[in-house]
Amino acid sequence: MTSTGHGRSTSGITMRDVAKVAGVSVATVSHVVNDKPGARIGDDARRRVHEAVTELGYRPNALAKTLSQGTSRFIGLVADAIATTPFAGQIIHGAQDEAWKHGYVLLVANTDGNTAAEDEAIMMMLEHQVRGILYSTWYHHEITVPEALHQTDTVLVDCFAGGSGLPAVVPDEEQGGRSATEALLAAGHRRIAFINTTTPSPAQSGRLAGYRSALESAGLDFDESLVFPASPEQEGGYTATASIVDSRATAVFCHNDRVAMGLYDGLRERGLRIPDDMAVMGFDNQDVIAAHLRPPLSTVALPHYELGAAGVRRLLGLETPSTTHPQLIACPPIQRHSI
Amino acid sequence: MTSTGHGRSTSGITMRDVAKVAGVSVATVSHVVNDKPGARIGDDARRRVHEAVTELGYRPNALAKTLSQGTSRFIGLVADAIATTPFAGQIIHGAQDEAWKHGYVLLVANTDGNTAAEDEAIMMMLEHQVRGILYSTWYHHEITVPEALHQTDTVLVDCFAGGSGLPAVVPDEEQGGRSATEALLAAGHRRIAFINTTTPSPAQSGRLAGYRSALESAGLDFDESLVFPASPEQEGGYTATASIVDSRATAVFCHNDRVAMGLYDGLRERGLRIPDDMAVMGFDNQDVIAAHLRPPLSTVALPHYELGAAGVRRLLGLETPSTTHPQLIACPPIQRHSI
DNA sequence: ATGAAAGCGCTAACAA
DNA sequence: TTGTTAGCGCTTTCAT
Fold first, then answer.
1. How many helices (H) and strands (E) would you count in chain A?
2. Using CB atoms and an 8 Å cut-off, which of residues 127-146 of chain A contact chain B?
3. pLDDT the model gives residue B4
4. What's chain B's Rg over C-alpha atoms?
5. N or C: which end of chain A has fewer CB within 10 A?
6. Closest chain B C-alpha to A140 CA, distance in angstroms
7. What DSSP element (H or E) covers A326?
């Protein structure tokens, strides 16, 4: 029995059917299937209902329930790039797990950064009576909020919007930068270079601030000549190799894992060994890369799963709306073998 | 005005409100907002309705509509690993785009391969009256279908199940292997090594079959000593380097991009240059890797986006249920610079 | 302890 | 051309 083309997918069994079989009213059925608190139901009736339910294979219609209760169990997630990056998947995953935990289900929509698609997506979610919307981007930056988002509860994930007043959940770039630098410091390095991205962003400024802060705490002077700008990719890291070597630093904190990957190449070409000749620290914890470079790259993780989860918690009002605006999620250091 | 904690997210405006304002009946409103085919509505009434709609900011309740029509616009996507791999995101993306195109929205659930979570997810989707379910895995293999899936239309994505009779959509591994090999052949190589995975799978057998088939078509003998087993990761490729070099092959088809990445390292350590000393072809087209290796890796793409899209098309009955069981989706070769 | 009945917001005959 | 009305499957007072 192939299952294509049926159309009628649901059991078709309604509460009324159950009531009939159990010989009770639908009200009674409703009470027992939902295990209502103040429900005074006779043991016998209750049993009969349960029997009827299993016998008939009854499955409540969640949509009807929503309609009558007026309150839905949907949470919308609109993302600008579900696929462009491995990261987006993590946000969905975290959001889905957390939503699930609270009896909600995730409605996802991808917009490819297209404003029209975005509005349409939001509309659609609104029409589906979502409890609220998680609006997420694939990299941490400031956005301008689509007007439509104001029509429902929404929380920004991995992005923020200045005057919007919308709650936001973002990675703690500064702490991440600090942790990365501290890891290098802890290994005894004193002359630590930093390959930073050339693109202005919270990541650029935050990680730099963290780097400086860690240096400071260690009693080291910040040496501007030790930070090198580079495009945030393999190419950038590769190209920066020369300057890094010249700088006579013994360790490098790379703006991200891709940069580190490029640096690995550059170092290898010069016959330099990691971590003996040069310790390197990444950022992002992009699994395909970090875990599989040789040697495996120590890095700092971007907490995408947590961002998604914290996002729904925030939406559901389960998280204390920490006074300060964008809520910071920690970027945990990941110890591997490049230090 | 912060948007947290409202609860009532939807406009609250119903069709009745619109009817009242427009001075017509709800039936009329229903007809004009849905632009019903056989709806003979006076221009005037129609105009008044539209005005009322915009004036009130009316937004139809999709759930109520579903309930009354008896047919929902949801498609469920249950995945065993949304996040474990960059690929899952692509499947979601493809499915979402295609669903959207036909007026459907995607309900996603992650199960982490946990059977209990899986059943729960399926139940939940059933309760939400999904039109059908896409059951997907993050790598192509045979599965045993959860019993619950039989209660609705379902199509298997990137996996298949022998006797289940369920429609499946999977990548065409053999064609992919053939294309990869042909690319190498086209560049003039005659002695082409193949690093295959050690894990039995459609990928293992399919890509090998494709490799042989391409060789054959080119009038070359299949030389068993030219296929090297390796773990399907960087490590495997790296380790295989020695044998590859010994084999005196001039080109290598790697089971996947990660293996190719390892091979790159091995080759570089030996001072061998790509593609001059050795041409290499990958498989998967894992962006972070393939596009950013040096030189960028030529490879064959796993059509995840297409798998998702084809999955919903199949579910909706829009795709000819090609006679043969698992429907094959092409793996297009991607030309870069390692050949 | 249980049932009758009035909705939830919308669609779809059927009347008018 | 437009309005009435009866549901869709469920929840929830309010009676009994």
1. 12, 12
2. 127-132
3. 39
4. 26
5. N
6. 19
7. strand A326-329
